[in-house]
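To the team - iron/sulfur cluster complex, inputs and output below.
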Amino acid sequence: MTSSVVTDAAQANAAARTKPARANRPAAKPHGQWKVDGTTPLNANETWKQEDNGLNVRERIEQIYSKNGFESIDGTDLHGRFRWWGLYTQRRQGIDGGKTATLEPHELEDKYFMLRVRIDGGALTTHQLRVIGEISTEFARDSADITDRQNIQLHWIRVEDVPEIWNRLEAVNLSTTEACGDVPRVILGSPVAGIAKDEIIDPTPLIHELSERFIGDPELANLPRKYKTAITGHPSQDVVHEINDFALVGVVHPELGAGYDLWVGGGLSTNARLAERLGAFVSADVAAEVWLGVTSIFRDYGYRRMRTKARLKFLLNDWGPEKFRQILQDEYLGFELPDGPAAPKPPTPGDHVGIHEQKDGKFFIGVAPTVGRVSGTILTSLADTLEAHGTTRLRTTPHQKLVILDVEEDHVESLVAELDALGLSARPSLFRRSTIACTGIEYCKLAIVETKVTAATAIAELERRLADLVDNGTLTQPIALHINGCPNSCARIQTADIGLKGMMLPTPDGDPTPGFQVHLGGGLADSNREEAGLGRTIRGLKVTVDNLPDYVERVVRQYAADRKNNETFA
Ligand code: SF4
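Output:
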């Protein structure tokens, strides 16, 4: 592999790998790598995962739990294997964030579930959308959130209703299979796959193949930890590939034509780390085998002793990209991958918001529900509206947005107006466009802080307070505001211009109040910064929920006043 494939991120990651060896270091404990240390389980999760594959819980849900109710559910199934079918218990209502760390898990949970509908590539028809909408209104109290991994999540699900929900989803080729758990999660795909004028390569056949061949395969259903995949052939690099375990990014090889650039080992939360290029060019005809090879490396060599060190990024950190590529080629593929070029910096943002012409002369319209929050009623109305305007296809995006496909030119403006009436704006403000929020305290057992309403309130306030900067042309680029309800990173705070990590903050009178730790200056390739990078935690900088609009207004006004030569926020 040539040195030119080593990116800045790779250099930073390499530096972390080259710490000097300590003399008299005690013998290292085994990492729990199946191919090195054997398959003896080294923690409780590994024990129950080996005792009974998570996928097997479906039969018990259908035959026992749905008939006998919540109280009949075995504890390990409830808190472990249910995830393999996209089910988590949701937070009991009314428990404030200060109690999250002190209560036992069973005291925090409700007898209702969050159910995650897996949407590989984000590809939906209006028929499928209507089914999700109807499930929401009938079984989920009209709840629905579009997530930043192209899934749709419903809440308030009773175990009694799960078999019927599966029947309805599977009748339209949707599922909850491996939507959570230590498995290959939903495959992120470019929301404009197959339709964009400037597409390098269409990943749709590959995403279909991976989904059909490998999702639900028991051989790949006990990985050390979750495993995230992202695939795009669009030059905007619109699938946040740098924070996935496995990613393919469309690129043109000077001799071999269009294919993919291979990235591995990205992930946020504990020890956030950007993925690295392996410097290998992956043609479409071997891409599925390469995915299987990397996934198998993770299964066989991934670390299973400590769950906090189990993501693929820790193995990549120790091996480095050269060794990783060599083992992939020698032990899994049986052939060498050609060296390949890096994809150029994206020419446009990758959120696809707005009105754009497709390669067939029709149009696609990207719209922004506020922080992904919709409802079953909205989803059903959306299906009706799209069909009335002559289209049946849409996509979810990794930015909590929707993209409507195949709109004839003479239907564009009337459709945009009707979408707007549903709260789905094709021309959102800079803040509505670029703010995302995780589930937060409304439903998440780990949450400390409310997120969705906090974000919606901040957006409305910032639209009002900063209108002057937008109107006079000072502020032209979206400023990404990402809001998390706890120290995890479901809303990718390290990759935002302004990232907010939920925590309780002390007040002068001694009563803790909900607030955020601030991260500044992150961004990925598809944002408006020069290159991907993780934001800095500003240690002393914390802001209460109530003061959030004041804080963001101050930061943005200062940026606008100090900015030189159109420099970006990052
Ligand atoms: Fe829950 Fe924390 Fe993830 Fe938000 S970031 S959804 S609060 S685990």
